[in-house]
Every structure is written in C-alpha cells, then in structure tokens.
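Need residues for this backbone.
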C-alpha cells in the first residue's frame, strides 16, 4: 500500500488507536526519514503527564484548552497555539474544560518509541 501524502483530520481520527490509561487517541500520519507526524486527541477526562524524550517535538493545538508546561514555562493554550519541546526537556499539561484536546506533533528525528507504543495498542494478530 502506498503512503498517503494528503492527510485529513477525519482519517487521522478514524485510523487512531486508543490508550485507556491516559484516555488518548493517537495516529501516526507520516514516518519520514528525518521527521514524524502524529495526530493526538485526549478525551476531556484524559491526562497528558509531564514526560521527556530524546527527540525534538513541535506541536500545534487544534482544539480544546490545556495548561501546558515546557521546561520552566507554564501557560494556558488553545486552538492555534504552538509549542516546542527540545530533546530531553520535560513537558506535558493539564487538560481544561469539557472539550477534547486535539493537537498534531512533529518529531525529529523520528521516534522508534512512538511506533512501539502504537503497535502495543493494536490488537494482536496472533491466534
């Protein structure tokens, strides 16, 4: 199957996998040689815990509100707002309000950990 180059939010949501502990839906939209593109939707009762990873992350909020922490900065953000998390800098946020929080993430370089995380959520094909 050929990779898709034009990606819609509807197809991202339809193709997403669900992680119940954080109540997050995630979809890997593109996995290039130098970058990776993810679509993420947190249910209103979900959690985006403070974490860090060895790759850089740029994100754009599409929907919802969140009190975001990146390093020592904390700010309430909403649709259209963006953030940059350098490699190994702690980041995460408190979801605010009644609406889901939706954002896209761009990682550089691509993260094998993200692929492993998503594959771990897929139903087993064994059996």
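Answer:
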């Amino acid at each position: 199957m050929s990779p898709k180059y034009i990606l819609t939010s509807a197809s991202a949501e339809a193709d997403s996998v669900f992680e119940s502990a954080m109540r997050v839906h995630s979809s890997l939209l593109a996995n290039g040689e130098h970058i990776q593109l993810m679509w993420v939707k947190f249910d209103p009762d979900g959690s985006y815990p403070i974490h860090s990873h060895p790759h850089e992350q740029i994100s754009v909020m599409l929907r919802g509100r969140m009190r975001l922490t990146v390093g020592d900065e904390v700010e309430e953000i909403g649709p259209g707002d963006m953030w940059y998390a350098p490699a190994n800098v702690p980041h995460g946020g408190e979801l605010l309000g009644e609406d889901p929080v939706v954002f896209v993430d761009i990682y550089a370089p691509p993260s094998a950990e993200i692929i492993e995380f998503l594959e771990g959520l897929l139903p087993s094909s064994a059996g």
